[in-house]
Amino acid sequence: MPDKLTLTELQLIIRDTLYLSFPDSYWVIAEISEMSENNTGHCYLELIEKNPDEKNVRARVRAIIWSTRYRFLKACFEDSTGEQLRNGIKVLVKAKIEYHELYGLSLIISDIDPAFTLGEMALKRQLIIKKLEEEGVFSMNKGLQFPAAPQRIAVISSKNAAGYSDFAKQLKNNSFGYVFYTTLIDSSLQGPETERSIIYALDKIALNSHMFDLAVIIRGGGSQSDLSWFDNYNIAYHITQFPLPVITGIGHDKDISVTDMVANRSMKTPTAVADLLIDSVAGAENHIIGMSSEIIEASRLIIEKNRSRLETAGIRLFPLIRIMLSQLKDKLSTQIIDVINTGKELIIRAGMIPANHKSRLISRATTIFSESNLMLKRGNHRLFTATTNTMGINKTIISGLGKKLELLNPENILRRGYSITSVNGRILMSCKEVKQYDIIDTQLFEGRLRSTVVENTKRHGPRVKKQKNKFPPGKKGSDLKLWEI
User: Fold this and answer.
1) Which of 107, 116, 266, 322 has its CA 20 to 30 Å from the CA of residue 468?
2) Strands, DSSP E only, in 77-162?
3) 8 Å CB contact between 204 and 155
4) pTM
């Protein structure tokens, strides 16, 4: 070998040496770092291998799939895995080493094994699930109580997605006429931006969690490869720590992602999510109607019970009155007989005394008789009066109780124009129990109103104004608005 070589001569020596040392094709495991196609249909890749920490790169090489081979390999790979050849996935490729004096070392790929990538995807998913379970957070969002009547909905979706449009139409056109308020946080739900976009949306909603009942993540149909973006540890972990229940509508009939697994509820489509919300509100309404019926029935039973008690008291009172009158008559008769006998005796004695004594005796007997008769009449009158008053008082009390029960009937109270106002399910008794910008519910005889307190005046009570599309400007995250659906 000469002492001096040109650069071309050196490159040719390297090329020939490599060809002689590595004449065959080799199966190589690598991760696609970059990938592009040129106008002629050739595919150019950059393959890397990372250290166990999954951060630092320990090896890097260029690779090429010629156009005639690339069309076949791409179609075969996507049909087998449901996944596109893209950045960030691991592949097992069959390649031959090539060295060019201008472009350096590269691998010429002739085959790709789809089974290896499928195994890597399944392994990645299982590792994510295992990590969440070991951290004890896998079921945290499922443990949150699902709201009885969810109407304030935070939506994570793309504003241009067909799935979001279907979701909004389903809520708006529900057959019950329910009103839902939604806030859309426009997000990317496929591609490399999926993780960053969804986490940003979740954080934004969490800062304003008092404005919402729950959050939903929805997207329209797509390939299985689009669903793989939701097999993501960071997205799943954020959902487990989220303060509100999360409903997902991102899957297909046969597919479920890690994001679906950790959510409070998982539905297949955005329309199914909307149906779940409508059914929840309908269930709450039916429960309220059932409670109202139970109250009415309980009131009716109380009235019937007291009416029966009144009738029973009357039946028991009349015999007692008859017994009392009979006893008084017997006593009076005895007194009259005693007076007559005494009079007779006095008359007999009077015949043996002077005439003036006889006259005084007769007068005294007459007086006693008159007083006894008057006492009898007074006693009879007092007894009759007392009996009548007692019966009238009892009748008035029982009638009053019946009227109070009728007045306490919630349906009659609402029918007279009154209303029941509550905040967070708690009935308000005083304007001191609410503050400005609180959302209150008002139950009328026909229908319900949802309002926001704009002013609180102790003398006249809070004035309310129906909230349609604005939240308090002083609250953190006031850029989120609820729009009526």
Assistant:
1) 266
2) 90-100, 104-112, 152-157
3) no
4) 0.49
**Total count of residues recorded for the chain:** 485
What residues does each domain of the chain span?
7-119, 135-268, 285-408, 415-484
Q: Which CATH fold would you assign to the domain 135-268?
A: Rossmann fold (3.40.50)
Which residues, at least 6 apart from 36, have a Cβ–Cβ distance to it below 8 Å? 43, 44, 45
Would the CATH topology of 7-119 be identical to that of 135-268? no
The CATH T-level fold of domain 7-119 is OB fold (Dihydrolipoamide Acetyltransferase, E2P) (2.40.50)
